[in-house]
Each structure stands twice: as structure tokens, then as C-alpha cells.
Amino acid sequence: MIILDVIMIITSTATNTFPDDYPSIIDVRTSAVYLEGTHKKSRNTKVELKMNQIKGNLALQMSAAKPKKQCFWRQIRRNKWLYGMLAPGVLYFLLFKYAPMWGLLIAFKDYQPYLGFFGSKWVGIKHFERLFHDPSFWMLLRNTLVLAGYNIFFFFPAPILLSLIINEVRQEKFKRAIQTFIYVPHFISWVVVVGIAYTFFTIDGGLVNEAIMAMGGSKINFLASAGWFRTMITLEVIWKETGWGTIIFLAALAGVDPQIYEAAKIDGAGRLRQLWHVTLPAIRSTIIILFILRLGTFLDTGFEQIFLMLNPINREVGEVFDTYVYTAGITQGQFSFSTAVGLFKSVVGFVLVISSNWLAKKFGGEGVY
Question: What is the pLDDT along the chain (369 residues), one digit of tens a residue?
Fold first, then answer.
């Protein structure tokens, strides 16, 4: 590069054309030294820039490594009102969901109230062995699985279907009136619901049996029949909880872009085609997530409703783990054994949630986590 610059200077001397930054007295040697110094300065400048860049990167890495805690607390201070609103929910789960898990310890002990958690004798898996060898275990498992299956196959799709029907209503006032009307049963206690069922289905003047008699049929003892017990339980759950279950699905449907429906209409899609190709795919992720969460409580068939509907005639098909825990734990004082039964249910629910979440992700859907 220096040789080329020297040649350029020589040619410039011949033509009397020089750059502005060259000396007025042209000396080839002086010019060569000048150019060499200029190149050295440029190289030094590049080295300095590179060093400054490395120092800057190191400073950024150090600043990103150390103030994580500071950033965390700064973020909390910045969003203190949001975290304040979150605090009651966190406290609820800590106090009523996580803290009571300490009581699971008695499932592995022969718990005596006067000895306490730590003073009671450790017996290991004795209560689980007793549960699995109990002659009534398979009867309890069968009844619980059948009722849970009824809820999955008949109750779970009910809010989805009702949400799709309500979503097709175009009159907003009528739509809101229907929503309010179907939410009400959720707030009615199971005692009242079972009382209503007795009023409608009893053989002593019940409205359903009176209607059957008016049509020429014979009375059916719905309440004392083992064959009708599971159907009655499922119908009561559907009547009470279907309306409340539509809230999440209607919220998901409200988020569907209306332009998608307009595009489907332009393509010639009717109501059913729009329902199948637009509406259902839009809420598919919501359905999957709620289904996974539902499997977590698969064995929770509900204590209060079944306990109120049980009688000596239908007990063979109606006794489930929930009622058995009450009978063994509360009425007979077998706290350790009933805790073992409850822990068995929880473990089954946990396995179902993990498995269903894995399957949902494996087939391209969205999971809970």
C-alpha cells in the first residue's frame, strides 16, 4: 500500500495535483513516512475500536449476569398493584391446597389423634395393601370408573354443544337472557337439586310418573332402582353444571375473528360448514385444555350428590371412593385408611393429567404446560 501511495505522489508531482492534507513541499521520503504513520494510526484506531467493542460486550454480560435479582425486585415494584391482586389467590392455594398436603403423612402411619402426626406409629404401605386386598375395592373402582365415564362422555360435551347453540343466536338481549337463565342452577346446592329430583321422579305423585301414567304406562321407581341410579346422577350433573360450563367456551368463541366467517361465506360455506371448519377449530385448544384438567378429577365423582341419592337398594352400584372415604374415615374413625384412599385417587388423577397432556402434545395439540 505504501509503494502505491508513493507512486501516486510521484505522479501527482508531475501533474502538480496534490491532496489537501499533504505538505506543500513535496518530498517523496517525507510523504512515505507520512503515509506510513497514517496507516499505523488507522490500524491503532481499529485495534482500539475492537478493544472497546470487547469491553462493551463484557460489560453487558456482567450487567446481565448480576442484576437478575435486582431486575426481579424492580419488576415487582413496578407492577406492585398487579402482584397485590395476585396475592390473595396465591395465599389461598398455599393455605388450602399445599399446606394440607402435610396431612398425607398419616396415610403411612397408624394415626392416633392424641399422639399427633409425629408420635403415631409408622406402618409404611400397610393401609394401601389393605385397600387393594379389600373385597369392596373392585366394586368401588368399578362404580367410580363407570360414573366418571358417564360424566366424560355425556356431561363434558354438553357445555360445548350448548355454547355452539348460544353462539348462533343473533339477538343480543335474548342471548344474554338465556345465559343468565342457564347459570342459575350452578348456584343451587345439591341438597335442593336432589330434593327437586325426588319431587319429579318419586312414585308417590311425582310429575314424571304421573305423565307416564297419563300416557298409559306404569310407574317406574327411578329413585330406588339400581338400573336408573347412574342415569339419574348424570342427568342431575348435566342440569346443574352445563350452563356454568359454557362460560369459558363462549369466551373462546367471542375471540374468533368475524372476518373468518365472512371469508367462509364468500367461499360458499353454510352454517354447518362454518361450524365445522371455523368455530370448532377456533376453540379446539380450549377443549383440549379443559379435557386434560377434567381428567385430573376423573375419580372425583362428587360426594354430596351421591351420598344424598344412595339407599340400600342402589348402594351396590352407587358406592364410590368419595362416599367410602366418609364411611371409613368419619363414621368409623379410620383416618389413616381414608387418607390412603384419597391419596390413591390423587395419584391416579395426576397420572391421567400427565398422560393426557403428553398425548395432546404428541398429536400436535396444546397442553396445559
Answer: 444 444 444 444 444 444 444 444 444 444 444 444 554 445 555 556 656 666 566 555 555 544 555 677 888 888 888 888 989 999 999 999 888 888 888 899 998 888 887 888 899 899 999 999 988 899 999 999 999 999 999 999 999 999 999 988 888 888 889 988 999 999 999 999 999 999 999 888 888 988 998 888 888 888 888 889 999 999 999 999 999 999 999 999 988 888 888 888 888 888 888 888 888 888 888 898 888 888 888 888 888 999 999 988 888 898 999 898 888 887 888 889 988 998 998 888 888 888 888 887 776 666 667
Structural element, H or E, at residue 121: strand 121-122
pTM for the full model?
0.72
User: Torsion-angle region of residue 18: left (phi > 0), alpha (psi -120 to 50) or beta?
Assistant: beta
Q: Which three cell numbers stand for residue 303?
A: 360426594
- C-beta of residue 35 within 8 angstroms of C-beta of residue 19: no
Output Rg (C-alpha) for the chain, integer angstroms.
Answer: 38
- DSSP conformation letters of 45-69: HHHHHHHHHHHHHHHHHHHHHSTHH
